Amino acid sequence: MSDIVLSRPVPVTTEPQLARALLVGLAVLFAALFLFAPLATVFAEALAEGWQGAIAALSLPDAQAAIRMTLSIAAIAVPLNAVFGIAAAWAIAKFDFRGKAFLITLIDLPFSVSPVVAGLMLVLLFGANSSFGAWLMAHDIRIVFAFPGIVLATLFVTFPFVARELIPVMIEQGRTEEEAALTLGASGWRTFFTVTLPNIRWALLYGVLLCNARAMGEFGAVAVVSGKIRGETATMPTMIEMFFNEYLSVAAFTLAAVLAMLALLTLLLKSLLEWRHADLLAATRRH
Amino acid sequence: MNIELEELAKEFGTERALHPVSLFIPSGALVALLGPSGSGKTTLLRILAGLEFPTSGRVRFDGGDATGLSVQDRRAGFVFQHYALFRHMTVFENVAYGLRARRRTERPTEAEIGRRVTRLLDLIQLPDIGARYPNQLSGGQRQRVALARALAIEPRMLLLDEPFGALDAKVRKELRQGLREIHDTTGLTTVFVTHDQEEAMELADLVVVMSMGRIEQVGKPAEIRAKPATEFVRTFTAA
After folding, report:
1. Domain count, chain B
2. What ranges do the domains of chain A cover?
3. Could you read off the pLDDT of B197-229 as tens digits, one per residue?
4. CB within 8 Å: B88 and A199
5. Are residues B166 and B188 in the same domain?
6. B80 in a domain, yes or no?
7. What CATH number does the domain located at A60-283 have?
8. B78–chain A nearest CA distance, Å
9. Nearest beta carbon to residue A185 from set B86, B88, B98
10. For the residues of A155-201, what is the DSSP string, one character each?
């Protein structure tokens, strides 16, 4: 009887050493090849003529205008879509109403429509050839080939991000915590700010970051709607393309590096927040 | 506070959750709504709390019409089936929530809130857990915190939805005793929903047996045992 082994030395879910090494290696290799290498190339090309070259490229008026443009668009589109996203997710997760399935499909529309098509739709709707566009022209309101058009295109393309992140979280949480707050005498707004919002803040943050990354990086829809007028309607992605087509590779890659850095910065911000609030996250996570 | 229901009915779309039911709950009673799932007992409780509104009929509190009274104005202490504690708040903040939600003119001072929360945590015999988060508590502790949170608003009545449903047998017995004691100390009219006939018979002064959206019988536990009014009551309470 003494030779019976009572417990296995390793847990049953643990794979053999070799399999583990292989899997980890594969993941690292893949990430290095397809994520890190291209990113590194961008930075290397940007600094091909040293820091002076990069700084000179960034002091080009066109490059600066593009950076300003992209930041202003994100500053408008992201908060708006955060509010729309919360409203849509709230309606879908907490209420039953007719046409709910239709609303969900509508929210997903920008994911299935090509951004170029989205841009084209805006040009057709607000452009000089439509009667609405002609009316706008007559009243001196410029939308297509101007700032409002670019904001509209960005709003359209980035609409699903926040709502898509929030809907499953809000459905999973149900409404009982909100009901509890109401029975304790809290008003609707108080319930929203003290119960609903804290419960969805991580999903909201993630949705906002994705939305922001896409708002700054959107090319197709913006390229069609903006008309890519240098110094006026060119955004960072469209300006990068123009620099690149003109063989100004240092300028193109420097601007691309700045865009990539903005994206990395948002990711860093998220990690930092998660790290700082790790205790609270662990304590409030559901079983 | 006494509660009176007059011909109360509730429909969800075409489905009838509650046929017209009438019921009188005397002030200070401890009442069980007993029935299988789908009998309408939870719907009835939620109408009392103001979380649902009846399709027809009236609700009266101490004789005054409360049918259209908003959930906030009812001041009903409600304990949810899975307690619905606020996950992102400490136990202290959970219990203090109802006091902080009051209008500025009626809101107690910070020191007074602290005193009241401490007193309530003493009442539920968990004086030292104020700084913890709900998921660091056992099921029985959560239930008691939910009770303290509901009592913090100085409710006019106490409503509990399957308060012992998610607990194991031993804890259930203890907490039953706890609820009885809290009811006797506060003197609050208390209504709880259960599908467990033993629990209803042992704890309640008055048992309301429900089935398919109708009230089958209302009576003291001994009366219901001795003289079941319908075949349903006889088989359900014999189980």
Report:
1. 2
2. 14-46, 60-283
3. 999 999 999 999 999 999 999 999 999 999 999
4. yes
5. yes
6. no
7. 1.10.3720.10
8. 7
9. B98
10. HHHHHHHHHHHHHHHHHHH-SHHHHHHHHTT--HHHHIIIIIHHHHH
